Automatic annotation (TrEMBL):
Listed GO CC annotations: cytoplasm
InterPro entries cross-referenced by the UniProt entry: START-like_dom_sf (IPR023393), START_lipid-bd_dom (IPR002913), START_lipid_transfer (IPR051213)
Limits of the START domain: 15-136
Top-level taxon of the source organism: Eukaryota
Protein name (Swiss-Prot/TrEMBL): ACO12 thioesterase
Any one GO MF annotation of this record: lipid binding
Length: 167
């Protein structure tokens, strides 16, 4: 299932996926962003720049160029949290950060992730519900242009690839 909400120049969307693996395994796979290239075609490269602590890492991500645009790059902080109670979800939160050791490069268009991530709810011992959230600014819109015209093919394809990867 896919939901969208547009306000000003920000598009928010939520994708909900039912996956046939335990929630702790989905959390482990989705919180390590170096796996993301295996299922998300928007991730060309992904490297850990800094392990802030056990639950937080800073990654450098590059995305392939879209027609008429330079390739994009991102410096993101990925925070992971385990549930405090069984009814609560696992959380993987993502947002862009500035790192003096990674200034913008002329070959890339530095882009920003305002707020994104996953919530992973346990449905049973062998299945879970994965919710992906993203708030997208006009800087990332070229990647979602098809979705804004009413076709959710790109988001849907990425969600299907994510499900295949997890299962």
């Amino acid at each position: 299932k896919i939901w969208t909400h547009e306000e000003g120049d920000v598009l928010s969307f939520k994708v909900e996926m039912q996956v046939k693996i335990p929630s702790h395994l989905a959390f482990s796979l989705l919180s390590d962003f170096t796996f993301r290239q295996q299922w998300d075609k928007h991730f060309l490269t992904c490297e850990v720049l800094q392990a802030v602590n056990e639950d937080e890492k800073i990654y450098y991500v590059t995305s392939p160029p879209m027609t008429g645009h330079k390739p994009r790059d991102f410096v993101i902080l990925v925070s992971q949290r385990q549930p405090c109670k069984p009814s609560e979800p696992y959380i993987v939160a993502v947002k862009s950060v500035t790192l003096t050791s990674m200034p913008p490069s002329p070959e890339y268009c530095r882009s920003e992730i305002l707020c994104a991530g996953f919530q992973i709810y346990s449905d049973s011992n062998s299945s879970c519900t994965v919710c992906y959230f993203n708030q997208v600014t006009s800087g990332v819109m070229p990647y979602l242009a098809a979705n804004l015209t009413g076709s959710s093919k790109s988001i849907e394809d990425t969600a299907l690839e994510c499900m295949k990867f997890l299962e």
